[in-house]
Every structure is written in C-alpha cells, then in structure tokens.
Amino acid sequence: MKSRKRVLACLLIMIFMVAMIPGRAKASTHELPFAYPNEANVETNNDIWVVVFGGSAAPPLTNNQELANSIRSVSVFFGGNATFDLEVIINSNVGWVPFTYPGINLSGGGVSNVPIVNDGVNYLEVIVNVKNKTEGPLSVTRMEFKDEAGVVVLTHGGPPAPPIPEIGFTIFDGINYELNMNTRTAKVVGYTGVPEDVVIPNSFTTDFIPPVSGAAIIFDVPFTVTGIWPEAFKSSSITSFTIPDTITRISHGAFQDCWGLREVRLPSTLEAIDGYAFSWCGGLQDIEIPAGVTYINEDAFKGSEHINIIAEEGSYAYQYAQDNNLINYIDYSFNPATGVMTLSGKGKIKDYWGALETRPWHQDAESVTSLVIKSGITKIGGEAFGGFYNLKNIYFEEGVTEIGGVAFNNGWSLQEVKFPSTLKKIEGLAFAWCEELGDIEIPSGVTSIAEDAFLGSPAVNIIAESGTYAYDYLQDYKLKQD
Prior knowledge:
By secondary structure, the protein is mainly beta. The protein contains four helices and 31 strands. The chain has helices spanning 2-20, 65-70, 316-323, 469-476; strands at 34-35, 48-53, 73-92, 95-115, 124-131, 138-146, 152-157, 167-172, 175-180, 185-191, 197-199, 203-208, 217-228, 240-242, 249-250, 263-265, 272-273, 286-288, 295-296, 308-310, 329-335, 340-348, 370-373, 377-380, 393-396, 402-403, 416-418, 425-426, 439-441, 448-449, 461-463. Strands 1, 2, 3, 4, 5, 6, 7, 8, 9, 10, 12 and 13 form a twelve-stranded mixed beta sheet that branches. A hairpin with a 4-residue loop joins strand 21 and strand 22 (340-348). The longest helix has 19 residues, at 2-20. It is elongated and about 105 Å long.
C-alpha cells in the first residue's frame, strides 16, 4: 500500500514538472481561431499556446530550423467587439518574455505586432492571455510570423486578413498626421491644438485605424515623422515650434499667416524651404537657418517684414539673406562721459515689445542723453528706446524708413529730433509722453503717421512743407505749425 502511495506521489510530481517544461501547456489550445466567452470579467491563463518550433505541447507549425531562425515578429489578429488587456508571451531559449497592451478597444478587428528576439532558437512558442474583458464577442483568429524585412514566412489560423490600406490619419498631441503603413512614416497635415509652443516629435507610437469600414485596427505602430504638408499650420495661432531632425523640407505655405508666431527652431538636417513657408508672419523676427540648407524660395518670407535671418557666413542661407535684405546686425556703443549712444550696422532694429530687459543697451537706458542712428539701419523696432527718460537729442543719418510703435515713448527729457529724408512711416505712440518735445520737422517723403504717434506730448509743433502728408496730418490733428 505504501509502495502504491509512493508511486502515485512520484507520478504527480513528474506531471507537475512536465507542465513546467518549455513546450508544455496546461489547459491550452493550439488551434485558431479561438473564441473567448461572450461575457465580462474574463481572465485567461495561457488559453492559447501555439508551438511554432520545437517543444512537445502540440505539433509545431514548422520543423524547419532555418525558417524558425528567420522569425523576428508575430502579428496576432483579433475579431469581435470588446475592451480588454492583452498579454502576449514569447517563450524560447531566450526566456519567458511578456508584452502587455492594456486597454485595447476592439471594434470589428485588430492586430497587435509583437517583436521576437531570435539569435537561433531551440524552441519557440507564443502564448496569448486576455484580462479584464468587457461583455462582447472576442476571438484570436490568426497569427502571421514575419522575418526582419516584414515578410510573412509562416501563418497559423483563419483565412488571410484583407490588405491593410496604405494611408490613414490620426491626431497626436493636437497635431494632425497622415500615416503611411507601408513605410511607417507620418507627415504633418494640420493643427487642432491650442496656441502654445508646438514641438513636432521625431516619432510616436499610435494605433493605425484604416479609413475603411471593417478593416482591422493595428495596435501600437511606431511612425517616424518625415514631412510637413503644404499649408499645414496656415493661419494657426501657434506662438513657437520645433521641427525634428527627421524632416528635411518645409513645404509651400506651411506656416503662412501665423501672425502670433514668435520663435522657430529648425533642425540641422533641414535642406529646403519652399515658397510662402513663413510668409506674412508679422511677429516672427530672428530665425536661424542651418548651414545645410541649399534652397530657399524667393517668396519664403514674403510679407514677414520683421524677419532677421541668422546664418553662417558663406552658407547658402547667408547669401540668400544678403540678396533679399533679410539679414540684420546691429552694433552699439555708449560713452558714459558724454552720454552719447551710437547705433550702427545693417538692417532693422528688432521689436522689443514687453521685453525691455532683453535690449542689449537696456542697462544704459537711463544714462543716455544723446542718441545717434547711423546710416545702414533701416527701421527702429517697437519699444526699442522706450523709457530713455534722460534722452534729449536724437540724430538720424540717412537710411531709416520706419519708426516702430512706442519706439521713443516716455522720453520725458526729449527736446530735439532730426529725421532723415528717407523716413516714410511713424507708428503708434512712437513719441508718446515726450513732454518737452517741441519743434519737429517731418520730411516730405513721409506717407504714414499714426493718429496717436505724439499722444501726451503737448508741446509738439510739427513743421512740414505745404501739400505734403505731414502738413495735412498736423492740420487734421491740430499739431500747430509756426
């Protein structure tokens, strides 16, 4: 009797040990399709255990060692309508390697692609577990095993899945993308997010939902972002953006009419900027263009009047900026002994709206009594010299055509301004609250003066030639003439 008990115990131990050997499945099926119960709260324990090569739990799908060694991934196909957590386990001589995919929402069909580490296998098995299933039909219908190039080398289960449409669309972090399943690439086609600093990623992972009714969803597909569609961000309210190094070209009109755009960060890999890419971006000023760019359309920055291209000397972008007067460099010097500040260089002095402390000369603002603007400078930017409380004299050499808004406001001590004959425009509040400013001669070539250009400057007396725009302006606003 004791001998029988010992034999029975040994048999139980052996059965338990055999169940633990790779290739042995307990209460599992090798066959596909496999349907789960049509009920909620289903949790399975290795119900699907497919032996691909080696093992002894079931006949293997192949006995071809070379074919087994070529397998690098498996696509698991699902059918039904349910939400569930998925676990796919790859069991081989590499070890027991689980992959989890929580919260899959299946409607009709779906596919999960699972990588397989394969340096030569003695056995290879795929185990599928489902947890936290909602009520509804769910089945595993088919498996496709693929080599390193993505070519299907072995199948198991139901009939072949219908071809997956090549193109789909998704929204990721407020950015709209076109997805290409053949190349696993994505292109930006639009933007639906809120105004903010937009960062286009190098890549992202998302479910691919084919634009065909009934086609299978492919879960967790990685896509590399490689392009921006024409007019993708046109008229959007973004304020800044970063383009990844996976993009080499900015398409036609991509950021056209983005008036709120203030900052652009371009990748070193960029090669081309197409027409109207940054046209009519009124708030965009400094933009650094990489040395690798070899093409910029002549209208790329059309209407973006504050653009200042920063580029490496000798590069294509540098020459483009020179040819199109889109390069600005401003130097200044200040003599504390005399109170004279001199600005020289080429191009426009940028706007400093609400950013006075970023002005290179800000630390000397309250010490300057005389300001000299040398020839070569074409525009005084907004608020560039606002708050120069002790400034008394401004002398312009020929070249400046425009004085920006609030450029010299709060010049409480300002008494004398000598304008150049090249001046064309004076914007709003440019000389507002300059209480000591008296006679000021406006050149005959000026064609635009904002209504409030001299607001709060009660002593201003505009001197202008009869018949000119400036003369009509002083008459309209009663800014007297002696």
